[in-house]
Amino acid sequence: MSYLQLITSPTLLLDEKICRANIKKMADKAARHHMKLVPHFKTAQSKEIGKWAKDYGITEVTVSSIKMAEYLSGEGWKNIHIAFPFNPLETLKLDKIAENQSISVQIINAKTAQILAEQLHHPVGFFIEIDAGYGRTGVEVTDFGLIEEILLIAKKSDQLNFKGFYLHPGHSYYMPDIPAIYEESRNALSMLKTKYSTEYPDLVTRIGDTPGCAVMEDFGDIDEMGPGNFVFYDLMQSNLGGCDKEDIAVCLAVPVVDIKKDRKEILVHGGGVHLAKDVLIDQDGNKNFGEVVYLNEDGWTIPEDRSYLKSISQEHGIIKASDELLSKVKVGDLLGILPVHSCMTADAMGEYLTLEGKTVDHAEGVHE
């Protein structure tokens, strides 16, 4: 039976071949630069896709929450890293995971370090997150007083083990000069490695953003990369130049419920609860919540003439349709939508359907 015959409502499709190719390409890049790839699974959030990643030599994984760490623990990962400023209210949950799973966290203040030092009964590693220009979170790169206060607290603890410095240059998503951002990030991490490697000879530095990891070829002496979105990619990454649309490994299958040929609009069952509400603005000021692809037995094809979701509400989506699309579509058909932000779309949908008709797990799905 074709996977298309299994779809009656919005369904997130996953092309395993494209996904595996994306993982392999990034793994090869990391190896070429003598770096360890520790992918951020906030995008995939899947045990099954984790098994695919292991086929390409990936042994450690990054997550964004305790919940995700709980979901992926016990799957044979050498370490699970929570790349979010640690929430001390979850220390007991962290300690429970650490009993059976090597795990690490990010620390950005002395208070959190002290709570962990006092309450942990099992070993937990930590990175100090560094802010070198993004401004969202992290210790200022020159705040050596705070860095050393955190390190001193850890030194007095039997359970808190310093691993190194983590930097997420998230402004690479909206500032065009990625090389300049990476020069700043490389310099920051190199300076910290030089300053602290005598005392901590095993410390590592890690950088974690998909736009930079996808396009850059100069990582200096950074030890590890931790991109996440690259496993699926999306229209945002394509817009940034990190991938081609053909590299996008997921699309949302949506049923057509009405057609307004006079307005060149198609109403589909697919809205904010399925795609989230990330949006791109084109050069003419039009909002783009996702672009149409044509579904077939082998996956999907990208049409020459663009049709796109011009607006979405909770369940509804309105497509601004090309003449080509209007000439072939009818009520009851299925169309595919390439997402603007695949991480959020996957999180909203909670599972995947492969082109072979197999359901693939997601941490936000229903668990028995």
TrEMBL record:
Pfam families assigned to the protein according to its UniProt record, in alphabetical order: Ala_racemase_N (PF01168), D-ser_dehydrat (PF14031)
Any one GO BP annotation for this protein: D-serine catabolic process
Keyword field contains tRNA processing: no
Keyword terms of this UniProt record: Lyase
Protein name (record): D-serine deaminase, pyridoxal phosphate-dependent
Domain (D-serine dehydratase-like): residue spans on this chain: 249-356
Annotated source species: Algoriphagus halophilus
Similarity field: Belongs to the DSD1 family.
GO molecular function terms listed in the Swiss-Prot or TrEMBL record: D-serine ammonia-lyase activity
